């Protein structure tokens, strides 16, 4: 009787698992980035204006 390798066990285990949904984590990450952008936008714009030189 041949022994089953670790790779064969991992493949068999992965074949029996339902597919994972990454949509909730992607949505949370996207909302966080949008909120950060909107919150920090005023500081970014004021920094650009402060560094401008009127010619």
Characterization of the model:
- This protein has 55 residues and is mostly helical.
- The chain has helices at 6-16, 23-50.
- It has a domain at 21-55.
- It starts with 5 loop residues before the first helix and ends in a 5-residue tail after the last helix.
Any chance you could write out the topology, listing elements then pairs?
Elements: H1 6-16, H2 23-50
Estimated structural class: mainly alpha
Q: What about the largest sheet?
A: none
N-to-C SSE series?
A: HH
Put simply, the count of helices is 2
The radius of gyration computed from the alpha-carbon positions, rounded to a whole number of angstroms, is 25 Å
Question: What is the straight-line distance between the termini?
Answer: 85 Å
Q: What proportion strand?
A: under 5%
Overall geometric form? rod-shaped
Summed up, what is this model?
The protein is mainly alpha-helical and 55 residues long. The chain has a domain at 21-55. It has helices at residues 6-16, 23-50.
Jot down its keywords.
rod-shaped; single chain; about 55 residues; about 70% helix; 2 helices; mainly alpha
């Amino acid at each position: 009787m041949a022994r089953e390798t670790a790779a064969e066990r991992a493949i068999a285990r992965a074949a029996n698992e339902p597919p994972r949904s990454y949509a909730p984590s992607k949505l949370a990450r996207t909302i966080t980035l949008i909120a950060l952008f909107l919150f920090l936008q005023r500081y970014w714009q004021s920094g650009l204006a402060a560094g401008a030189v009127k010619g």
